[in-house]
Design goal:
CATH class of the largest domain: Mainly Beta
Radius of gyration: 22 Å
CATH topology of the largest domain: Ubiquitin Ligase Nedd4, Chain: W
Largest sheet: 3 strands, antiparallel
Order of helices and strands: HEEEEEEHHH
CATH superfamily of the largest domain: Nascent polypeptide-associated complex domain
Distance between the termini: 55 Å
Number of strands: 6
Helix content: 25-40%
């Protein structure tokens, strides 16, 4: 909470922010937000996204609990497909369930 604003109504706070040139809006109908990192993805399914515009700059705030999923590359899928002798779909699924671990995915597909 911002000091000095205790007890103020949300409408009054929003009005003051608008006077300072700060516009806050919640995005409607957001279904999913995915943040892609080099080694994994953070997937927010049940999410609230708020956009704050200040001096022409937009800042996005994401509120929710992410699901972490290993990032699977086409090259990884190709390696698993060749080594395990399975389809690309099966290789991709095995990689996802093994957290992106190539050796583990290959061993699981070979039944070892």
């Amino acid at each position: 909470m911002i000091p000095g604003m205790r007890g103020m109504s949300p409408k009054k706070i929003q009005q003051m922010m608008k006077q300072m040139g700060i516009d806050v809006e919640e995005l409607e109908n957001v279904e999913r937000v995915i943040i892609q990192l080099s080694d994994k993805e953070l997937i927010f399914e049940d999410v609230t996204v708020t956009v704050m515009t200040t001096q022409g700059t937009k800042n996005y705030q994401i509120s929710g609990e992410p699901t972490v999923r290993a990032k699977v590359t086409d090259e990884d899928v190709k390696i698993v497909t060749e080594q395990a002798g399975v389809s690309e779909d099966a290789a991709r699924e095995a990689l996802v369930t093994s957290g992106g671990d190539l050796a583990d995915a290959i061993l699981k597909l070979k039944g070892q």
